[in-house]
Specification:
The protein is α/β, with parallel strands linked by helices and about 375 residues long. Helix content is about 30%, strand content about 25%. It contains ten helices and 15 strands. It has helices at about 1-15, 60-70, 115-120, 150-160, 165-175, 210-225, 240-245, 270-280, 295-305, 330-345, and strands spanning about 20-30, 40-45, 50, 75-80, 100-105, 130-135, 150, 180-185, 190-200, 205-210, 225-230, 245-250, 265, 290, 320. The strands form three sheets. The protein has a six-stranded parallel sheet, with helices on both faces. Strands 3-2-1-5-4 form a five-stranded antiparallel sheet. A four-stranded antiparallel sheet has the order 7-6-9-8, sandwiched between helices. Helix 7 links the parallel strand 11 and strand 12 (about 245-250).
Length: about 375
């Protein structure tokens, strides 16, 4: 989401300057690739660009193709293929032994439903959004290529794809949380491909605490583009807290906070009674991630005491205490990194082990 916000800001700036632009979007990946489906790069006619579609190896060629799309005002597709270990595109050092398909779409700023405007409409939503674009199809549908399509019934009407097939593909994406390039049968059985992309909302992290280690957490979340909300004693909030967090709350203001499926909660007040009171407040909201600093014995003691009040802390399946991945973290910055890494593994449904031990593709 951080990259999408940067692209929107750049789009607004270029639009104000009346500079034409195009969007390069990764729509398909096979085998190994640095970026995944949905990675984007906004390219201006004068060569300025924001975002990325690879680790840097494709950007030069992609920029030229995006500029061609701007000049011709026609979308195009390029497949970068090094599955055989050789560069088939002269001058491209892909280096990943994979195949990456990129869609280049000229952006019509007068169109309120161009790809960047559609992205703008979803960046502040708190539920995952599904964005659908036609990538390949018969000549009769070429005017739809690269344009976001909305509503299953409307998409079916315009493309000839059955609503049932479309629903199955969307469900597969939302269930797995992974975007995909789906193949469909359109009118008269004509094959076509549509990108079905799930756009996750920003990760929101609520940290309970007002000590210096929360500021270390703030620096990591800023780099990640997460929202950080901090609950603590208001008189302890310095200018750094105000500058590095999304919002600050006193302990008596926690009623203003609501959790959702993309919100993580971490107890780091270093005060047993405060953590216990905050857990009793938030646990009924069923946090998607509940982390707590401190040794396991501390959590077990809290569980025993909260059991008498009707809470099952120890049996809560999304409780992580001690909090963070086991990376040997010692400094506040390392601990913050371990916490954010663990939250990412939970929200991405990954085990958090070493990639060298993973069988198959890393994505």
């Amino acid at each position: 989401m951080k990259e999408i916000r940067k692209i929107i800001a750049a789009y607004d700036n270029l639009k104000q300057q009346e500079v034409t632009m195009a969007l390069a979007t990764v729509v398909g990946v096979e085998a190994s690739s640095y970026r995944r489906i949905g990675a984007r790069m906004l390219v201006a006619a004068d060569g300025r660009c924001v975002g990325g579609i690879s680790g840097g190896c494709l950007e030069g060629d992609a920029k030229r193709r995006a500029q061609t799309a701007i000049y011709q005002q026609t979308p195009s597709i390029q497949v970068y293929d090094t599955l055989d270990g050789e560069d088939r595109v002269i001058g491209i050092g892909l280096g990943c032994n994979g195949k990456v398909t990129v869609l280049f779409t000229p952006i019509g700023v007068a169109d309120p439903e161009n790809p960047v405007e559609i992205l703008r409409s979803v960046v502040d939503t708190r539920g995952p959004e599904v964005m659908i674009q036609l990538v390949r199809g018969p000549k009769s549908l070429q005017d739809l290529v690269g344009k976001p399509l909305r509503g299953r019934a409307e998409i079916a009407r315009r493309t000839g794809v059955s609503e049932r097939q479309l629903y199955r593909e969307i469900l597969q994406v939302t269930d797995r949380g992974l975007s995909r390039l789906g193949t469909f049968n359109g009118e008269a059985g004509a094959p076509l491909e549509m990108l079905i992309e799930q756009i996750r909302p920003e990760t929101r992290l609520i940290a309970v605490g007002d000590n210096y280690d929360v500021l270390a957490l703030a620096e990591v979340t800023q780099a990640l583009g997460w929202e950080l909300h901090v609950v603590g004693t208001r008189r302890k909030f310095t200018h750094d807290f105000e500058a590095k967090t999304h919002h600050l709350y006193g302990y008596d203001e926690v009623g203003q906070l609501q959790l959702d499926a993309h919100t993580a909660l971490v107890m780091m007040s270093h005060d047993y009674d405060k953590d216990k009171a905050m857990i009793a407040h938030f646990l009924p909201q069923q946090p998607a991630y509940l982390g707590m600093l401190g040794p396991r014995k501390r959590m077990e003691k809290m569980h025993r005491e909260l059991t008498e009040e009707g809470f099952d802390l120890g049996g809560y399946p999304r409780l992580f205490s001690p909090v963070g991945l086991d990376i040997g973290a010692e400094s506040p910055e390392e601990i913050a990194m371990a916490i954010c890494a663990e939250i990412t593994t939970v929200f991405r449904r990954r085990p958090g082990g070493m990639l060298k031990d993973r069988r198959g593709t890393i994505h």
